[in-house]
Write a structure and sequence with these properties.
The chain is mainly alpha-helical. The protein is built from 23 helices and two strands. Helix 14 runs antiparallel to helix 15 and helix 20 packs parallel to helix 22. The N terminus is likely disordered.
Length: about 475
Amino acid sequence: MTATNPGPLPAGILDRVDVQRALAEHDFAAFFALLKKYGGISQNKIAAACSLTPGKVSQVVNGAQQITSFEVVSRIADGLRIPGKLLGLAERPWESRREAPEETIVEGASIDGTDDMPWRRETTVIMATRMTRSDLVMDRRAASKAIAAATVGGAALLEPLEGWLLPLDASSVTVPVALPRGRLGARECGELESTARKFREWDHAYGGGLRRKAVIGQLAEVSDALDGHQTSVIERRLLGVMAQLAGMAATMSWDSGMQRDAQKYYLLALRSAHAAGDVEFGTNVIAGMARQMLCRGRPKDAGDLVRLAQDGARGKVGPKVRAMLHTREAWAYAAMGRVAAFQRATLQATEALHDAKGADTPFWIAYFDEAELAGVTGGRLLDLARQDASKHAETAAGKIRTALEHRGAEAGRSHALDHAGLAECYFLMGDITSGVEQTHRAVDAAERTQSKRVRDLLGELYPYTVGRDANRGMREARDRVRGLLAS
């Protein structure tokens, strides 16, 4: 036993009924006291092992504070080597394999080591072939490493994207006459485009998970077809399909916790859109990268990405895409606490969306309507409400209710996120009954998705359901959230 990691705990201590009861109820005051009494582990050693301050442990033992954060509970499990099932958690990484290091943001490395590749059609196909082959043969150990891989930020994130602003080299899409042409026709290409749309519907409804491999498998097929040197018309359409599939692979990757892989697929999607001459979808890809960075707590990187997208999109994209970009901008401002700038960008998004009425828009941006704008705005107001509930919680709740009232049944993941967000709004306003009701609805919706983002948001909701004065309804909601997070 060491000061930095007491595990494993003294033999037999986790077999005690009183210890197991304290763990099951997350009664850490009792648990820490039992560790000292029967295991001889001091409060300082507990603090060091669990990355807590000695003062925090002392306050917990004395009953002055409670541990309600699901993230802190997980740290205690890992620091003291307590099997996940005793705390209502999923099996911990160290129970079956070597524990992966915590993810950090990498400032110096490139996204995937290909930033010196010219932005040409053939290099894009090479990237797709290499990435999909590697991904499709990934085993469980490799998948664990992919989840732990660090996210790129700063200049290393932006510099590989600069080629998107440059015009496409016309020679890069010209196939030498001597090469045989592929046999893919308009019908087969249309089928691939329809498949890409269906995958997008899957992602919108259920999130990543097992469907991610199906998308990557289809992406590999498109890459092989492009290697066959199709006619120029078919090739351009295939590059568009590749951009769509790579963008979905990126979203599904980060929705499954594979952040670095997501960045690689976003870069492939952007290069494919560039080769296909599709500025609007390229703008959408960069906006997706910005959303990923916002969800990783990197608003400055997100703001830089939005500005890059706006530079390339100026005068070349429709009002719906402009509106979506403004919401990403507003999100970044809200994350930095710039309320006035957030309100200005939200107003610009509303005006651009109004301009989109009656206009033709690409299928992939059809989801962005008044309901989506209300949901995104409500989510950002909730971010602000966590700092000042009296000013923003009620307005956030109103926006999220509007989103829920107008979303279609196909938006399964969004329903789960909205219900979880609305539950937190009610808890912040002190409306416990409504908060519990919405928590149950959030769990109902989450059970129909495979989205890690949804589970992360429920993890943030969990502390509101914990407390010694919790009533029966609150305890039932807590148990449902805990059960879902442990599954």
